[in-house]
Amino acid sequence: MTDTPTPPATAREWHLLSRPVGWPEPENFALVEAEVRTPGEGQVLVRNEYLSVDPYMRGRMSAAKSYVAPYELGRAMQGGAVGEVVASNAEGISVGDHVLHFLGWREYAVVDAKTAVKVDPQAAPLSAYLGVLGMTGLTAYAGLLRTASFKEGDSVFVSGAAGAVGSQVGQIAKLKGASRVIGSAGSDEKVKLLIEEYGFDAAFNYKNGPVSEQLRAAAPDGVDVYFDNVGGDHLEAAIGSLNRDGRIAVCGAISVYNNTEPAPGPRNLARLIQTRGRIEGFLVGDHYDLQPQFVQEVGAWVRSGELKYRETVVEGIENNLEAFLGVLRGDNTGKMIVKL
What we know:
It is a single chain. The chain is an alpha/beta fold. 25% of the residues lie in helices and 26% in strands. The strands form three sheets. Strands 3, 4, 5, 6, 7, 14 and 15 form a seven-stranded mixed β-sheet that branches. It has a six-stranded parallel β-sheet with strand order 10-9-8-11-12-13, sandwiched between helices. Strands 1-2 form a two-stranded antiparallel ribbon. α2 packs across α3 (164-175). The protein starts with 9 loop residues before the first strand and ends with a strand.
């Protein structure tokens, strides 16, 4: 192990200066120098090595009441991060350990030890704990298996299927015995990736025509499960193709996150009466009881190569904001990671 470097007196962190209306703009944010504090009782100082940027962060930039508190103006923002402990004032975590925590968007973080999770850089690359073996992976696992009550033989449709969550949903469905897995993505390159690398049975570029028509062609026998990352026309299309007793797990709605006017809802909700269909939203935070089972099962698939994952890596904290905006634009393939 290399010697742990002495922390600097100051380090950089991203602050939210004003709440975006519509698409976030650079002037809503500032990269500032802040004092690197000594950890207090029960705390550790972490030198962040990888930061996560995720679509849900857009919601935290608004003051609207939601399932998680808004970012405070003029304070460091938060997000998933993994790094090395460089000072410890807590039992059970030593200098040189690596931990996963939620004080990202900064180079150094003083973290309450009880909220940090030790991770093993020998078992998987550190960045994997932010994606395939982290919150995004658990989101895919819990949403498909628990919320959507997936069972062997189901036909599954996933939107945003080339993203960090969607790509894992499709692969888990295949590994668990889905009869057919269909994905939508925003480019022909991503469609090719879904079929050739992730093993989807069919995929389409939603920009190439109406989603409902493309879905009907890709799933002529309908779908039993829809995992929704997009909302909008994708949700309406899925309801239109839903089989009897079909289930829809609503994970996200990235198509409407930057809208300034309310988006129209699906016009065909009455079809749920015929199909006895079910739509249920979920939050990964309600399903952390699945974490040990998830890490054991998915970790084995990752090690065996049965479950593949991609990362889009952006280097430097100064590019953290651009990486986040890239997620909203769909620039990433797989999990978007910032390497410090």
